[in-house]
Write a structure and sequence with these properties.
The chain has about 80 residues and is mostly helical. It has four helices and no strands. It has one domain. The longest helix has 22 residues. The chain starts with a helix and ends in a 5-residue tail after the last helix.
Length: about 80
Amino acid sequence: RSHPEQHQTLEALYETLHAAETILKNKGQDTALAASLSDWADTWELSGATALRESLRAISRKLSVGPPTRLISQAAPQEN
């Protein structure tokens, strides 16, 4: 059976994931988008999809933290 309301819900989620993918590819961060993904993970529509919810939370954490930076000890030349 067709569920048009579910299609609209999933379409919005796919758009959010596409935006997250673009930001992560550019090594960026976006706290608003991270919050949106966390909200998605907490929706009742996804309550039965544990793996998806965990994935959304993991992507959210990556978006809010940003890429790792070099340690000061790695950036400075070492003296022997």
